[in-house]
Hints:
Layout: H1 3-29, H2 33-53, H3 72-84, H4 86-108, H5 116-135
Amino acid sequence: MDNVDRQSVSDAWSEAAQDALNAARELKERAHYRSSVSRAYYAAYAFLAAAMVAKPGVSFADGRDGPQHGSLPDLVKSHLAGDLGRRILWNVRTSITALYEARLVADYRPRVFVNRDVATDALRRAGAIANAVKRDSP
């Protein structure tokens, strides 16, 4: 992938991320907490994908445009550690792990109660990830 392609894919991820974050906020306000959590996770995932794909030399398994979900915390450490600083890196990795777990509950465990507090926490974490990677982008 050349630099023009990288920027194009990164821009597409950034646009998807912002759209998902906006949707997560709206869904929370309409008391659709499960859907809000799911969109908040996707927003954080997409913000991280945008940051990583923009870096020369970064590629993802199976020719995908983004990372696999389960390996995301390790990929963040590998590819973004130099950009984020130690404390922010720890917060981003902890937050994306918590968001992924919350998303799995929201999407696949219908008997587990997902309330406004869970959605609020998911939005807080997604917003923090967005701020961390946007701060380091040109």
